[in-house]
Amino acid sequence: MAACTFPHSAVADAFTAEALACETAVTFATDLGFRSVQVEGDSLSIIKKLNAATMNRSLINPIISDIQILRGSFDNITFSFVGRQGNMVAHELAKLGIKFSEPMYWMEEVPMQVERLVLRDLPP
């Protein structure tokens, strides 16, 4: 339904980049007015922190806390782990995003290479 790439400069590590990508996705879904969202990610550690009932004490606590606050914007939101093979669309968007110096947003249409991966992921 929608896609975006969002450059984050001066990110310390891949762990923080994954958390920021999740926060951006949840914020984007909130801005679009979605009421039910399924967030999939290939960082098991981030997904566990988002699903944990206890306070997060890691360095990315502010990001996780922001995402937890945004949960209230949805009737239903889930965070699920998928391996790299199940997350090819996000990987392709990340590669595409490197080409842009500013955020890019697509509504209803996405770049052709991303659309092919989305169609491949659809159930038969």
Automatic annotation (TrEMBL):
Alphabetical list of InterPro entries matching this protein: RNase_H-like_dom_plant, RNase_H-like_EbsB-rel, RNaseH-like_sf, RNaseH_domain, RNaseH_sf
Superkingdom of the source species: Eukaryota
CDD domains for the chain: RNase_H_like
Domain RNase H type-1 residues, every copy: 9-96
PANTHER family reported for this sequence: BNAC02G40300D PROTEIN, RNASE H TYPE-1 DOMAIN-CONTAINING PROTEIN
Name of the protein in its database record: RNase H type-1 domain-containing protein
Species of origin: Hibiscus sabdariffa (roselle)
Lineage of origin: Eukaryota, Viridiplantae, Streptophyta, Embryophyta, Tracheophyta
